[in-house]
What we know:
The chain has helices at 198-208, 233-248, 266-275, 293-307, 312-331, 335-350, 356-366, 369-376, 380-385, 403-416, 454-468, 470-473; strands at residues 33-41, 44-54, 60-66, 71-75, 78-82, 85-90, 95-104, 107-116, 119-122, 126-128, 146-155, 160-169, 175-181, 212-216, 253-263, 280-286, 390-395, 422-427. It has 474 residues and is of the alpha/beta class.
Amino acid sequence: MRNFRYNKTIPLIWILLISFTGSVRGDTKDILGSWMGTLHVGDVELGIAYTIEEDQDGSLSATMHSLDEVVYDIFVNEIHYEDNQLTLICEAAQSTYEGRLVKGRGSVHFDGQWKQAGMSFELDLRPVEDIPRPTRPQNPQPPFPYEEQEVVFENIPAGIQLAGTLTIPEGTGPFPVLVTISGSGSQDRNSTFFEHKPFWVLADYLTRLGMVVLRFDDRGVGGSTNSETEATTADLAGDVQAAVSFLMDHPDIDPNRIGLIGHSEGGIIAPMVATGNENIALIVLLAGPGLPGSQILLDQNEDIFRANGAPESVIELRLTYLSRVFEILQDYPDDAEAKEKIREAFTQTYGQSLSQDELNTEAEAWTSPWIRFFILYDPGPTLAQVTCPILALFCERDIQVDVNQNLPVMESILTQAAHTDYLIQELPELNHLFQTAQTGVIEEYAQIEETFSPTALDVIGAWISERFFVDIEQ
């Protein structure tokens, strides 16, 4: 899975905040626009940029961009500018930039320092016309041969509203519809990562084939509200069920042709919804696990550590620790007891002392509602109960949901269940995100221009069309 809900992977800067404040003194016209420089951290070079704008009320706002990490538009919380001294505080990156504006003959730049985690590095910023962004040629561009409709629906039991976009084909309905279901981590409706928007690419492709697609923001993201407590995978299935209920009453939708497309953890959620709702006509599982979450994480850690060149001794120690954590979660349903056992397991496994705060953070992470549910949940029994058609696609170079481990298990589950309409297929050269990849390592995701393999799109489109349109054509 791409990002655990309890702990997003942060190289240098990677969390987005949704609020900012600006405080400004002095003449600001000289600092408006975009500024870019190179941060040297040991042997690593990172491109850092800021965009500073003046709002209608005369106050300043700013965003930060980490170019090499392909993370853009991170809100800057505080801006101070006085006597040619600029301070930019970004809580999301836990960073502060302090620079002095230097004007020369025909040139201008900031001579400054980047400060993060108690360290300071030189960072000079120079003005640029535009911030360079990666090429994403598959991102849909208008005009579109379909209608885009912004919608809001409610998960009544959870007390939350979910916002999304319907893409509706030209012509007269009612139309078949697909609901996209994101992988782990809080995703927007496009499942955006590194400027890629795979769910938008998928929706654009399927809508051009004559299908409505609903993609929606996860809880607490974009236009969707959040719940008071952390959601488990089962809770998120309730959000998809709310989407299905909403679509059942939509005038452009054929209630007998509703399908679900789930990626990664979404491939666990789709069968949950399908077994509890007879209106689901088909499901598509994109790198959906067939194994329990505990085994998924063991395989994932082993593959990722090995792909990054970790020594076998380090990998073995990591797997030993994780196996012990999973045993604890199974044996100790009480969080307080489980946390104490996890703290002990970490110290015993690694033979080193962390601060109490660090140990507490480790224990809290493993006992969060989402991760506890995910580790202990086995998708097999639910998958065996699905009666509608199933397309399950796995990727050769996926190091997050291993095809060699999960495909045979899913094949066995559906065979033993005597399922009559399913296709399980391995797609060559693709990574976990369905990009054509050289290695499949996570660091490669941002560097690949392709958002979603055209081959995969064709397989998905053809399989769904055969089931949604064959009766109409006859």
